[in-house]
Design goal:
Structural class of chain B: alpha/beta
Largest sheet of chain A: 10 strands, mixed
Shape of chain B: globular
Strand order of the largest sheet of chain B: 1-3-2-4-6-5-10-11-9-7-8
Strand content of chain A: 15-25%
CATH superfamily of chain B: Amidase signature (AS) domain
Structural class of chain A: alpha+beta
Oligomer: heterodimer
Helix content of chain A: 25-40%
CATH topology of chain B: Amidase signature (AS) enzymes
Shape of chain A: elongated
Largest sheet of chain B: 11 strands, mixed
Distance between the termini of chain B: 14 Å
């Protein structure tokens, strides 16, 4: 990975020496499967506490886990989407530690054989810079229950009189996605997370809602002299519950470390929690308290090997992922980074756009309609572009009609409105209703002469040098021609005829 | 009615199906007998009168509707580490002394579906950890052959129930010999199927990669019938094997013509007491007399079995038993905070042997020791399994003692290692996952002893060769009739 400074990175200095931030992110993403990871309980958010539970996810004596195939497949597809390697052999391990919201006092996870190894997340910053972050691994585990503490003023454990546990979340499939320390700024961290979210949503493996806890992330943050290849001492930042808090927490932590170094202090390896109210990080745990999790292969579960045919099928399907599509839109269709993200981040819109372009062969004109008139109508009517009566085929016809000059932009806009509401073929409507644009100079002249005769005051103003009036006069020609006049030709004939009629 | 109860499972089911007696009448007789006889033996932690009657009524109703139930009305004792919905399921531990199971184990459910009647929950060493049943925190079980002696363990209650005639058959669980050793001590047939044959769903785990449920019965034929009923893939246990269960009863045979019996070179009978040794030498000769060919086979790594087992099983148990923390079910001893409550609960709830194994296992899995202990033990386990594979290239079945001595007296094995060595002949088969059973093979009267005590011959076949194993065991059983030659004194007294 490049360690040189890149555009968009705030200059960081300690005692006049340029420093850079080195950031790695560990994400936990809840999968949106129908059922939990190792039992048949429903996997839904927001149910009454302890209603989606059974002997398995409550860790009752004698109960056994059975892996959810859909969840395993989701992890593999997520890995393939980033070009990760899928090892032939994987297994589940037990991570042993005691906690009241973990029913078995061990978590079924993956230690040394994750389902996906490596891979690269590519994304674009708003200024158009492309960045890549390597993935270390993606593995599958089960979520814990949720503890709630009662009797304390702030709902925290300290000072509480008793605790309650909701096991609805216990056993929900959880994807852990670990990045290499390739991130260099808070803006990159957010763009990285957005890229993950975009991909997981597109794959349908998670809804990635930070506010509901279906995406949780920790950041490992350190700083070092720019260009150095050694890593500084890192701190782990937890408890960030929005993209905004990720950005703020990293900015704060980088500044805190820079100030500490400037004061001649050393950075201590520790876990710090982001305090949203105070906008600061607070020490939670030092390294000395690290656990020995006593990982070992879970004897209740058999190792997993994937069939080559399944892997090939999933690999093929992963070609439609946003990262690949963004690359295609930006490099092939020369669409701006912002517009490409608009397409990809609206459900179904990029599919719609690409289907229409395949028929029209005119990326820019198609894009203008999709992000312009069609998106406006979608907002107005509440019907998604992808689900509208206005099909990609219909849009391609309109693009074709306008680029040929057969209809003008006003007609195009009206037509889109009609087809959006009623469906049908724009080309046939144009033919049937005689909406084709008038490009015959003689016919245009007739409209122009009528307008010059009717709008004497405006014509006079134009003659006196008020250039802007010409737009109004073109508009009058369009109105007189019921939108069919070619506006460019109309303007040209207006200018000519107004001059010719001077002094008449 | 009593004479019907003295028959085998196959005949009882036939009698009930033919309406010779109703399941309910038979169940009442079985319950009465259990209450009458069990006082001296202590096979049961609970005699489940009401549950038994409820199932008996259900069986009668189903028979009236024309259902065919292969175990109709047959009384069964269930080892108390298997869940039966609505009954206390204790694992012989104070930790679960009052825990009522909310669901039923798959193997138990299959018996109920076949018409069996659960007479009671049988005693066991706490969490199935032990070889004498002395580690039960909830009761003492005595050997029906000599009440001063242990029944063996950990399925001590199950074998004592069958040996004393209060259950026609029983379910036990075997991790390193917990079905076979007590079956040998009490003169009954105890059968551990291949790992993965019988669902563990609802069996309170001791060591998940070794635990296997199996039948304990008075005859090989009954064991085969029960095995056919409980075996087969289960969607609730990912370690069960999707492989058809061959009919074991169809493979029962009367001679051993063409069977090659492997005698293990390393299991030198010279180490045994001369009287015990004579019984096993006679057993080998009887196999030959029935037409088998004896061949010597080698299991050079079998000697490492006990050491290997006492790393793997405790490692798994240290994790499996972590869930008993007083938070959601079972015993809770309140203390200052959650950590102190964990400690107080586990200190009060677990017995010494359970604590010892949790400590050993936690140590073996700890950072810095994992490779030296757990990983090496897994490698040894693989080598032991490979030795068996090589041995089975030369023979169809391996014969050896099920235990090195008959049942011993209470408190005779106060040193844990001497107790662990009781499973010397059964552990290697468990580590290799092989189907293995103990069948009665003779009696010895120990010096100063009052009564003859049974011994068991252990027979083992390759993975999934249960049908062949039961067939060979049946031929030996009918050819020698050891089980019919004597009856436990407790049973005699009851008559």
């Amino acid at each position: 990975m490049s360690t040189t400074s890149a555009p968009g990175r705030a200059a960081l200095q300690v005692d006049g020496v340029a420093y850079e931030a080195v950031i790695g992110i560990e994400c936990h993403v809840e999968l949106t499967t129908e059922t939990k990871m190792f039992c048949g309980c429903r996997n839904v958010f927001g149910s009454e506490p302890n209603t989606n539970v059974c002997p398995v996810c409550l860790g009752y004596p004698g109960a056994l886990p059975v892996p959810n195939r859909v969840a395993v497949e989701a992890i593999v597809r997520a890995g393939l989407a980033f070009g990760a390697e899928i090892p032939a052999f994987s297994k589940f391990d037990r991570k042993n530690y005691f906690y009241p919201d973990m029913p078995k006092n061990y978590q079924i996870s993956q230690y040394d054989t994750p389902f996906a190894v490596g891979g690269v997340v590519s994304f674009w910053l708003p200024d158009g810079t492309q960045r890549s972050v390597r993935l270390t691994r993606i593995h599958l585990e089960e979520d814990t229950g949720k503890s709630m503490h009662a009797g304390s003023a702030d709902g925290r454990l300290g000072g509480s009189t008793h605790s309650l546990v909701d096991f609805n979340r216990a056993g929900v499939p959880l994807m852990e996605c670990v990045s290499e320390p390739d991130i260099r700024s808070s803006a990159e961290a957010v763009a990285y997370l957005e890229a993950l979210k975009r991909t997981f949503v597109a794959l349908g493996v998670s809804d990635v809602k930070m506010e509901e806890g279906s995406l949780r992330c920790d950041a490992n943050v350190s700083i070092r002299p720019a260009g150095s290849s050694e890593l500084g001492t890192k701190t782990e930042i937890k408890n960030m519950n929005s993209f905004r808090s990720v950005q703020r927490a990293i900015e704060h932590e980088v500044a805190r470390q820079a100030e500490a170094l400037a004061r001649g202090q050393r950075i201590v390896q520790e876990t710090r929690g982001w305090d949203e109210g105070e906008q600061t990080t607070i020490v939670q745990r030092s390294k000395e308290e690290a656990h020995d999790y006593r990982y070992f292969p879970d004897p209740d579960l058999v190792p997993i090997e994937f069939a080559a045919a399944d892997l090939a099928r999933w690999r093929e399907a992963s070609r439609a992922i946003p990262q690949v599509r963004l690359e295609r839109l930006i490099s092939r269709d020369k669409i701006s980074v912002v517009q490409a993200h608009q397409l990809v981040d609206t459900p179904g819109l990029a599919d719609y756009y690409e289907a229409a372009v395949a028929l029209s062969g005119a990326p820019q004109a198609t894009l203008n309609f999709v992000l312009g008139e069609l998106s406006r109508l979608a907002n107005e009517t509440g019907v998604a572009v992808a689900g509208a009566q206005m099909t990609p085929q219909a849009l391609a016809e309109i693009v074709d009609l306008t680029t040929r000059g057969a209809i003008g932009s006003k007609t195009a806009k009206d037509l889109i409105g009609r087809v959006w509401a009623e469906g049908g073929s724009p080309a046939k409507i144009v033919e049937r209703d005689g909406l084709a644009q008038v490009s015959d100079p003689a016919a245009i002249d007739a409209f122009v002469r009528d307008v010059i005769a009717a709008q004497t005051e405006s014509v006079e103003n134009f003659r006196n040098g008020k250039e802007s009036v010409i737009k109004f006069l073109v508009g009058q020609v369009m109105k007189t021609s019921r939108g069919k006049a070619d506006p460019r030709l109309a303007e040209e004939r207006l200018r000519t005829l107004i001059l010719e009629t001077r002094g008449e | 009615m009593s004479d019907v109860l003295d028959r085998g499972a196959v005949e009882i089911a036939r009698a009930v199906a033919a309406r010779e007696t109703s399941a309910l009448d038979l169940t009442e007789a079985a319950l009465a007998r259990a209450h009458q006889r069990d006082g001296a033996v202590g096979a049961y932690l609970a005699i489940t009168d009401e549950v038994a009657r409820e199932h008996a009524r259900r069986v009668d109703a189903r028979l009236a509707q024309g259902a065919r139930l292969p175990l109709a009305g047959v009384p069964v004792a269930i080892k108390d580490n298997m869940c039966l919905a609505g009954t206390r399921t204790t694992a012989g531990s104070k930790m679960l002394g009052n825990w009522v199971a909310p669901y039923t184990a798959t193997a138990v459910q299959r018996l109920l579906d076949a018409g069996a009647i659960p007479i009671g929950k049988a005693n066991l060493d706490e969490f199935a950890m032990g070889s004498s049943c002395e580690n039960s925190a909830l009761g003492v079980t005595r050997n029906p052959w000599d009440l001063a002696r242990v029944p063996g363990g950990s399925s001590g209650g199950s074998v004592a129930a069958v040996a004393s005639g209060t259950a026609t058959f029983a379910l036990g669980s075997d991790t390193g010999g917990s079905i076979r050793e007590p079956a040998a001590f009490c003169g009954v047939v105890g059968f551990k199927p291949t790992y993965g044959r019988v669902s563990r769903y609802g069996l309170i785990a001791f060591a998940s990669s070794l635990d296997q449920i199996g039948p304990i019965a008075k005859s090989v034929e009954d064991a085969a019938l029960v095995y056919e009923t409980i075996a087969g893939v289960d969607a609730a246990d990912a370690t069960t094997v999707a492989r058809p269960v061959e009919t074991a009863r169809g493979a029962l045979r009367d001679d051993l013509a063409g069977v090659r019996v492997g005698i293990v070179r390393e299991f030198d009978l010279a180490h045994l007491d001369p009287e015990v040794r004579a019984v096993y030498e006679q057993a080998y000769r009887d196999l030959e007399k029935l037409g088998a060919e004896l061949v010597e086979v080698a299991l050079p790594t079998a000697d490492y079995g006990v050491a290997t087992y006492y790393l793997i099983a405790p490692a798994e148990c240290s994790s499996n038993l972590a869930r008993f923390d007083g938070m959601r079910y079972g015993l809770r001893v309140e203390a200052a905070d959650v950590g102190a409550t964990y400690e107080a609960t586990r200190a009060a709830g677990f017995g010494d042997e359970v604590k010892r194994r949790i400590l050993i296992g936690t140590y073996a899995l700890s950072s810095g020791y994992y490779d030296a202990y757990y990983v090496r033990a897994q490698k040894a386990r693989t080598l032991i399994a490979l030795d068996f594979r090589t041995a089975f290239e030369r023979c169809d079945v391996i014969a050896c003692p099920a235990a090195s001595s008959p049942a011993f007296e209470f408190n005779a094995k106060s040193d844990p290692v001497s107790m662990y060595l009781m499973d010397y002949y059964t552990i290697p088969m468990s580590l290799a996952g092989l189907p293995s059973l103990s069948v009665p093979c003779g009696y010895v009267t120990p010096e100063g002893g009052r009564t003859p005590l049974p011994l068991g011959l252990e027979l083992t076949t390759p993975l999934f060769a249960e049908a062949a194993l039961l067939g060979i065991a049946h031929a030996y059983e009918v050819g020698t009739r050891h089980a019919q030659k004597q009856a436990p004194p407790a049973l005699e007294a009851a008559r």
